[in-house]
Amino acid sequence: MAAGAAHAFEGPELYQGEKALYEAAQKEGMVVSFDTGPTWANWNAQFNAFKKRYPGVELVYNDLGSAATVVALDKARNRPQADTAYYFAASALDAVSKDVVDGFKPVNFDKLPETLRDPDGKWFTIHTLNVAFLVNKKLVKEVPQSWQDLLKPEYKGSIVYLDPRSTGQGQVIVLAANFANQGSMDEVKPGIDYLGKLQAAGNVLRVVGTTPYAQFLKGEIPIWIGYENDGLKAKYLDGMGDDVAVVVPKDGSAAAPYAISLVKNGPNPNAGKLWLNYIMTTPGQVTFAQGFVRPSVPGVELPKDVAEKLPAAPQIKPIDIAKATAQKAAIDQGWARAVLNQ
After folding, report:
1. Separation of CA 232 from chain center
2. Which helix (H) or strand (E) holds 259?
3. Alpha-carbon gap, residue 173 to 161, rounded angstroms
4. Is beta strand 204-208 parallel, antiparallel or unpaired with respect to 253-263?
5. Over 80: is that where the pLDDT of 22 sits?
6. Which of 20, 89, 154, 341 lies 20 to 30 Å from 288 when distance is taken between CA atoms?
7. Mean pLDDT throughout 84-93?
8. Short-list 134, 96, 315, 147, CA closest to 213
9. How far apart are alpha carbons 207 and 93 in whole angstroms?
10. What is the per-residue pLDDT for 342?
11. pTM of this prediction?
12. What is the DSSP string of 121-143?
């Protein structure tokens, strides 16, 4: 190796074979990571930690969105540009069906519940996002603790959430309400009926098509049924402090899996594997938690200050992404009927 060139890191391996894989990745020199926008899920901190541990392996990324990532992989299937692809897990199923991803089982793969991984490793969940009530305490006297609470007359015209017909988050909200009302992945009517009741009670201010984070920060939304990480970001990073309460409803919630894959015939396969392994190690999983998203690997020990912000919430159930995809049409039509009378 040339004098001054990056060398294998000091200290013990994070997993068996890490140094050998790093040396192979160095020969490729870079990893191209699709859809890992730096401001989302703490990717920027992951990039920095990866580059510090593996000098000589550059990281190149873009921020396309889940569905657009699969389209891009499909278009470039003869000359793939990407090494890895990150997306909402429903898009991972789409990538598998289009045969643009490869099987790879990273560190800790076997610890994941079966619903959070492809049996052949063509995708696996790296973190989840959970439905929570994000409550502006300046606008709401009594902080709701459950889906049943949201039906109370005191929350008239207070609630905003995303449209399930056009957003993944909206679909997950229907499933969260469904779990809280004794529904299951095979029977989504209880969740749809609940949202119909919430609408009939006059408690919904509006249903929106894009994330209303900026409006929430400005104090324009009393209660946003959204993702827990947005509430924690508003609280700890973006100035709302104790004016925001982040409540995982006690009667049930849902966890949306976010997955990643090794791209089939990607230009830098060893660097791609090094990157996927790293984000599934304990340091990688802790970095996600520092960005307020919950790690997918069970039993990862979090630093105390991080664990306090993400308290144990056994009422959060992971959604089965294959069943959720199969239920999409039923949710779209049922919701439009129950909520919009269409």
Report:
1. 14
2. strand 253-263
3. 8
4. unpaired
5. yes
6. 20
7. 94
8. 134
9. 27
10. 82
11. 0.87
12. SS-EEEEEEEEEEEEETTT-SS-
